[in-house]
User: Fold this.
Amino acid sequence: MYFFLSNLSFLDTCYTSVTLPKLLSMIMNGRRILSIECLAQCHFVLSFQSTEYLLLTVMAYDRFVAICRPLHYMLVMNNQICLTLSHFSWIIIYFFTVPITILISTLQFCSSCEINHFYCDVMPLLQLTCSDIIRIQIVIFTAAVLLGIPCFLLTLTSYIFIVRTIINIHSSKGRSKAFSTCSSHLTIVTLLYLVLFSLYLRPPSKTFLSDGKVISLLNVAVIPMLNPIIYSLRNKDVKQALKKVIG
Assistant:
């Protein structure tokens, strides 16, 4: 669990480093003009965002094994398996994000070069272009089908088995202990998928981009800030270490 948390912590640091400094710069000088750095930011935002969902799916499986197969946990989630799953989460996503970035680089922006967002995201960029976007839409749809849907279904399936196992535990103390091992992860997963559905699975409207900016701010700033707080407050070892330091 701590190995995957360290991966998540590093990922959140990268994610916020890609978006928030540029946001502060835009607030200071008021410039929102597209440039080559916009393409780089779009690529890394898309990569880190997708990697986070993959990593959280792996963590859901880790919690499933810990609660539903506790006697086999050290055998199933050994060091080699953890490293393999971690590397898979970081590497596989670039086979999908690189083609999207290449297709975005070929777009022509005829009407305006000012993006209606606080960072370069795919949807605001597609709103500005006057090029044919059918190919990039196909690639994005393919990535969603091959990565997004399996991540959601695997996470959902893991928690269905987890909940069923917790319900079958006879003692209230045992149920509480089992639930505490996955409550932090479940909280973060719920927040992230609510943000994902709100951003990309809603019909376009006049307020779509305005509302999307507020929701995106939750995704790139608020949730990464909440991660260490939620995991720390729900973790017995962290609370004991904190009490020891304060004491």
Q: What stands out?
A: The first helix runs from residue 2 to 29.
